[in-house]
Request: fold
Amino acid sequence: MELPIVAPAPVVGDHAAVFRDLFENQCQFRHFQHYLTGLIVLPNKSMANIARCTLDSADKTNLSRFLSEASWREDAVNHRRIRFMLQQTASHRRRRRDSIVVIDDTLCEHVGSLFDYVDCHYNHSDGTYPLAHNPVTSFHVSGPVRFPLGLRLYRRYEELTQWEAAVAKHFPALPIPTNTKARNRLHKQVDPTLLQDPEFRARHEQFRTKIALAVELVEEAIRCKVPFGVVVFDAWYLAEDVVRVLARRRKDWISLLKKNRLLETASFHLRDAHGRPLKLPSPQIAVEELVPLIPTNAYRVMLKNSAGFGSLAGSEFSTALKRSRIHANGFRRIRPLMVRKSCVFRVTSGKPRSRAVAAINASGSRMRYCWRSVIVRCTTGSWSGISSKYASRRIACCNWSAVCG
Reply:
């Protein structure tokens, strides 16, 4: 049995006054407080259950009408929340250059299909297609201060445009395949005709890719004056549109680079074992083709220094490991031969890799002064053990990559 809500929770009562002017009357503001209280204290956080447990409401549909019909603006409430959070955490946050914004998407799975915009989305972790919402989110991290910024709901093109119904309407005799490649070929065949339908075209223009939603979240964070210097995202969002916006906004970024991605050969210099420049055959080269070209003598065993931690001398950057020497399956530093003004690290799995991660994290305060790009190669596994301190360093992340091979 769930306890009834007789009054707003104390934490809600202490901070909700900041949002009072965003609502037209006291009734809307009271519904706002009760809804927040239900989200905090009730195990079942559905709107129906919150309305059922709220005693200060004669009509149990009041909460539903407040969320769906009342004339308050969701974006205004969220912007006020972000401003309030920034004010409250000002003394605990790190500098702008050491603060990050994380862009990612997630799946909110559901049992029934009565929810608006619910659809079958691909879950890359297990290869299934659960019934879910797929929001793209942004999250602020600045030392101990961490809170969400924004959210955009991603809707698949076929769900948003009601593509299958449109095909059945304009091409009733044409079967719709389930195979992905065959379906894409059908798109190319029928979409020019479907776009001539005004209703379908209006829905088509509402579609936003995850890349476009990520760009919107970054721009929103900047409009809300969130202080950050680095944006972190996975390989899915490593696209030209995102990189172009971050470059224009003077933001560094960290991501993962797939091994089949092409690199512009004019952006770096590669030398052979004798130090002579190598001329690459084409203006572009795949990462998996570039890594084997690094000469073996470019690897250097890291030695423990007397101080026990990393030190920075001139243009050299070194880091200390607990062991004085780590061999083939450990952590090695490559001389800056491949990329101009860069350090290249090679990390493998196992205990040596863990020591390497710990060593990099321990040297964070020094590495932020090393204005060079970093390439990390993970021969097995993924680069998941690195701390948020590493993500906050000012590194030219367009040359930062994790090559899993």
Q: What stands out?
A: Residues 26-41 form the longest helix (16 residues).
